Amino acid sequence: QDKIKYRGFGLRLLNENIRTSHKNSMPYVTKGYLLLDEIKDLSDSDEHLVEIIKDFESNLSSGYKKYPYDEALLALEHDFSKQIDSLPKAITKLSDALRKKSDNIFLVKRYAKYYIQNGNYSLARQTMNNFLRNHINNKEINFLMAESYIHEDEKKNFNLIIKYLKNSYSSNDNSYYEKFTHACFDYVYVGE
């Protein structure tokens, strides 16, 4: 009971800190680990799991936007992926939530990342394509789609990779990793 109370208090403080502080990624990382701790305390049948996953993905996305190459955020995402993989019903719950609300980017990203990591590219792409039908210019999902083709076979899929990488950034944003990846694929495969 006290743990839940203090966790809630901590999350409120971290949300305030995230809103006002711009020094480093620690508020995002700490909030992520608090949410991860909350997931560990849930049972598989808890409906609250989907909301926590949405909150976690939102927090991670915001953190990556401000601190794109932060090692602590990368470690947090790795730990989160391991935790989700260990919950047998987590992916089932994500799948059910996606059926109800397929336009939620955070659910789509987590679901697709899970299946890309496990080598089920067709299911990951089907989920992302369903999302892209309504949000064709979504940069994050376009980049994730390119990553799925990179993981599968970059030599065979380089045309699709370049197509999705082109849609993963705009000329006036600061998506340097996406721009660099696109430039590399353009140089290696189109420049031949």
Task: Quote the beta fraction.
Answer: under 5%
From the helix content, strand content and strand pairing, which structural class follows?
mainly alpha
CA-based gyration radius: 18 Å
State the helix count: 10
Rounded mean pLDDT is: 87
Amount of helix: over 70%
Outline: globular
**End-to-end Cα distance:** 63 Å
Q: What string, H for helix and E for strand, traces the elements in order?
A: HHHHHHHHHH
Taking pLDDT < 50 over at least 5 consecutive residues as the criterion, the unreliable ranges are none
Biggest sheet: strands, sense, closure?
none
Overall number of strands: 0
Q: What is the multimeric organization of the chains shown?
A: single chain
Tell me what the structure shows.
The protein is an all-alpha fold. The protein contains ten helices and no strands. It has helices at residues 2-20, 26-41, 48-66, 71-86, 90-100, 105-117, 121-134, 139-153, 158-166, 176-190.
Summarize this structure as a short list of keywords or feature phrases:
192 residues; mainly alpha; 0% strand; globular
Short structural description:
With 192 residues, the chain is an all-alpha fold.
Please render the helix and strand layout as text.
Layout: H1 2-20, H2 26-41, H3 48-66, H4 71-86, H5 90-100, H6 105-117, H7 121-134, H8 139-153, H9 158-166, H10 176-190
Helix pairs in contact: 1-2, 2-3, 2-4, 3-6, 5-6, 6-7, 6-8, 7-8, 8-9, 9-10
